[in-house]
Structures are given as C-alpha cells and as structure tokens.
Amino acid sequence: MEEKKKNSFFNKIKSIKHIEIIIAAIAVGIMLIIYFTSFGGGGLSIGSGNDRDNDHMQDSFHSDYTRRMQAQIVNLVSSMEGAGETRVVINWESSVELILAKTVNEGTNSSSSSPVIINMGGSSRPIIIKEIYPRALGVVVVVAGGENARLRVNIIMTLSVLLNLEPEFILVFPMG
Questions:
Q1: pTM higher than 0.85
Q2: 69 Cβ partners below 8 Å, 6+ apart?
C-alpha cells in the first residue's frame, strides 16, 4: 500500500511541466535569502574608537572585495565559449577581517591596546597589518547559454577550483 502511495506521489511530481525550472527557482530563492542574511558575521576588531567608523571601514573592505570577486567571475564566465550575459551571486561565510597594528597602553592595574593611527591627506586611518578574506559558501550563476550542459559543467569546475568549493555548492542556470 505504501509502495503505491510513493509511486503515485512521484508520478504526480513527474507529471508537473518544467519541474526542473521550479526546483531551480526555489534553489535560487533560498540562496538569495542566505546571501542577504549572511552579512554581519566576523569582522573588524579595532579595540577602541568610533564604532560607526569601524563598521563603515569593515563594510567598505567587504564590499570592495565581494564586488571585485563577483566582477572577476562575471568576466571569466562570460568569456567562456557559449556564454553570454552573466550574473553572479556569492554567499560569503563572514566579512573581511582586518588585523591592525596596535600599541600597548600599560596602566597601573591592567594593560590594554589601541590601534596605531596615521594621518594622511587630512584623514586618520589605522595601520592594517593583514586582511583575512572570507570563504565562499555557495555561488549562483545565471548565464545566457546556460542551457548548454557542457558550459554548465565548465563553469562549475572553474568556480570549484577558483573558490575552493565543492561542486554541489555551485548552481548554474540559464538566463531567461
């Protein structure tokens, strides 16, 4: 009896026209939700100073990095044989983390540190020792020509190597 119910359920699903497109649209929706809710993870720790400025600096570094990576991927994918217009969304693990140069302020009871600030051109900025870039968690690519299976495989393999991602975390859809 349960076997008939299962077969009936799968036959109903198989009979839905364009089920692949519906599933793809749902997957894109889920990825977009994850993408837009993922910001706010790890970030800049300056120690003391104006938190609004720190948040702005962190957002600026994260935004520059993500924009640069997306632009590079768009250029790469759109230059592949059979590809046309390309759009890319990348879901990041966190934001860019900045490691700042600090000075130690020794007090009577405890020691603390504060960032080393330099003045250049009328603006003050901390000295950045190192930038730690976030890891990509998933990528969605929408590309003209994406109905071509060979192109989709090439895109998935390329992004898997470029971003060190498992292929199942890279989705490629035809532009429609």
A1: no
A2: 90, 136
